[in-house]
Amino acid sequence: MAKFNVSTPSGFVEFTPTQERERQRWIGVIKSVFERHGFPQIDTPLVERAENFTAKGGNPKEIYVLDRLLREDAIDQDKDQRAIRFDHTVPLALYVARHFNDLTFPFRRSAIGPVMRGERAQKGRFRQFDQCDIDVIGNGSLSLRNDAQMVAIIVELFEELMPDQKFVVKINNRKILTGLFDQLGITNDEWKNVLGVVDDLEKIGHEKVQKGLEELGLSKEVSEKILAFTEIAGTNDEILKKAAELLGEPAGELQEVVKTLREMNIDESLFQVDLSIARGLDYYTGTVYETNLIGYEGLGSVCSGGRYDDLANVFTNKDLPGVGISIGLTRLLWQLFDAEIIKPTQASSSDVIVLTRGEEYMKDALEIGALIRKEGIAVENYLENKKTDKQIDHARKKGIPIGVIVGKDIMVENFERKEQKEASKESVVQAIKSIS
Amino acid sequence: MAKFNVSTPSGFVEFTPTQERERQRWIGVIKSVFERHGFPQIDTPLVERAENFTAKGGNPKEIYVLDRLLREDAIDQDKDQRAIRFDHTVPLALYVARHFNDLTFPFRRSAIGPVMRGERAQKGRFRQFDQCDIDVIGNGSLSLRNDAQMVAIIVELFEELMPDQKFVVKINNRKILTGLFDQLGITNDEWKNVLGVVDDLEKIGHEKVQKGLEELGLSKEVSEKILAFTEIAGTNDEILKKAAELLGEPAGELQEVVKTLREMNIDESLFQVDLSIARGLDYYTGTVYETNLIGYEGLGSVCSGGRYDDLANVFTNKDLPGVGISIGLTRLLWQLFDAEIIKPTQASSSDVIVLTRGEEYMKDALEIGALIRKEGIAVENYLENKKTDKQIDHARKKGIPIGVIVGKDIMVENFERKEQKEASKESVVQAIKSIS
What we know:
The structure is a homodimer.
Chain A: H1 17-36, E1 47-49, H2 50-55, E2 64-68, E3 82-84, H3 89-99, E4 107-116, E5 128-137, H4 145-161, E6 167-173, H5 174-183, H6 188-198, H7 201-204, H8 206-215, H9 220-230, H10 236-247, H11 252-263, E7 271-273, E8 284-293, E9 304-308, E10 322-328, H12 329-338, E11 352-356, H13 362-374, E12 379-381, H14 388-398, E13 402-406, E14 410-414, E15 419-423, H15 428-435
Parallel strand pairs in A: 6-7, 11-12, 11-13
Antiparallel strand pairs in A: 1-3, 4-5, 5-10, 6-8, 8-9, 9-10, 13-14, 14-15
């Protein structure tokens, strides 16, 4: 039938209308929670100079650069390579460097939008995906209260995104792990590899981590000490106490963050000190976060982040400490749809649809649609000349919950509950509210 | 100072925090008006197969394709070229072709997001820019009422986006112009060029258009007839009447659209039949729209669109008529900022900021912040250990209108009006509302 291969390119995903409706709800909630806490969305270009990405550790094999389908040298006056962003952090560093004098510090912003990585395409991994980030950047210093605020925001996010789903935010501090490594005589050069292995504890289990550590050249004794430490269990206070006993000062920041979380009245069941959390990225220097959905730990962390000492060191000579979190939205939603943890049913953004019992009632129907819309209710008019039954089919297929059927009378119907109510033009909005 | 060239690449624009705040407001209003009328946002990938873009008339010199900064053939298993979308219409056609069986027709969707064109960079023209589109696609047929609905939506958009700005939606129908050309013996091959010249009437004036038409090989007499026709003036009814007298049937659709607009109670001053509107794109086949800001006609049309016979003819063998409109958001906002028609002042998304008279009040301040946030008010806590004056400076620089200063007492202050009000924890939300 089709003359062209119309399928999406490998690694580029799009959702069906019902899935996309759920995705839009998530984006709306995420944006709203971020902004409610003082993190306005600031969009930056998808494209930057390639050299600025590689300077901040981008993998050249995965960085997409732009070319033109048909080259015409006159247009391409600047020969530098242009690349597509692979995260929101490097663009943030560039934004801060570019607009330093226009910004008020601590500078807070959110970024919600696509990034691209030319990874090998595989199930559930995409080459274009949405990241939803917030970061707060200090000029010279940044209070640890910001580290606690991130936890408060993760909590509010998942309470709104998945109200029936239990979750826990796991917190640690990289200084604790590196303090331990210092004690054990592990050098700075070895840290990164050791952290990488420790980070997989939940995924691969105790024995494989021990084996992994020994493969890095650590003695059995040191490996066991690391594992014993990261597996310290108990209440938050018990874990913090043991860490402080063993390490002293390096545990101080984490204690401070937990204290602030309590001042914020965050429910103690929602955050958990976990000395094994390391986060792979090597630019984290203090607090680190992961978030697990209880019962679905296999999905991995659904919201992660941490504190970093210096956002933009290669782009400015300012000292810019920051802390941030990120949700990998596309991957997470894809997993939730795939495992049927979320099963969306509504394809339409409309709460109400206005139908008619014939063309002669269209003028009334348009007027009623406008009346309802004025009340801030999302309402669409069915505009085609079709039988009423066909119109009702259309409404059901789109999953619109309420119909207003305009004929000699005005009937308001809740399609799901099969409840009906007669109304007048004056009472139609109230009838909709009472039947919703 | 900087070790790298951190500036945005030529043709890729980003806004300052205050400008970006206004941009985000526009996106929010546009999304909300679209959804209120039954057009849910559906995002599609930025990237498609290049051949699908050229099949729908994309200019290969302007289409960006993806490459990798460092090529590794193992990853690039599929050798077909991947290109970045240059509009939302081709992705819509592909989406409809891909999900045909999942869609309910008429299918409505909005698209708000970036597209890229590798044009020569020049002032106010960008290589990445946001387009905000809605389209409704029928399966086999689509009522002309949808054409009227587009006008109603443009009206609602600009009433919310620029409440103090007058504007007018200009409507025409391509069948009227092509009907006239038939009468004058202008062949189908000549239509496109003639429409292109006529389209510039407002921009370049009567004489230059006449010259342009004669340069296309039309006689003086024919050129004058075309101009006389497109310059027919009067009320909407007078223009429609003359068009109907001269052409008969071709004016019928436009009459029908105007009739529906009146049924929708759209104020007659907000839409204007204008027989010179052609729209450059050759895929429009019926109704066409342009929108002008009164007093700023030089900006060109700020929202345009039209009816097309067949959305996806190269991708499916279905008959899919549609009608849609589009706002070129980045260019429009850039123009409005540049000409200082809009002068944004607030960099923050917060309506309220909570400050302290010392660290000892931080716990109270955090609690008060949470209380205010629970009421749905966007509020940020100032978390650093700084003097109160510095905190107030911070709030002012970000343009946050209301401050809550927590010490022994709780003071609510409107920074702009320099009004203060004492409050308790219990009354702080009400005090904010009364002082806003």
